[in-house]
Specification:
two-stranded antiparallel ribbon, 2 helices, alpha+beta, 15% strand, 2 strands, 55 residues
Length: 55
């Protein structure tokens, strides 16, 4: 998804069944150790300070 706000372009990538399947196949083909998933709300509130360090 892509949108503009206040003259700035923003992009958001959302995983779906197809993209996760392709990722898992890539992991298997390259004998990689694993994959991680995150959803908003699973973090502790202080994590956002790390992302805003350069603003």
């Amino acid at each position: 998804m892509e949108y503009s706000s206040n003259g700035k372009k923003h992009q958001v990538w959302i995983e779906d069944k197809k993209s996760i399947g392709l990722l898992l196949n890539l992991l298997k083909q390259n004998q990689l150790g694993g994959v991680s998933a995150w959803y908003i709300g699973s973090e502790t509130p202080d994590i956002w300070d790390v992302y805003h360090f350069n603003q």
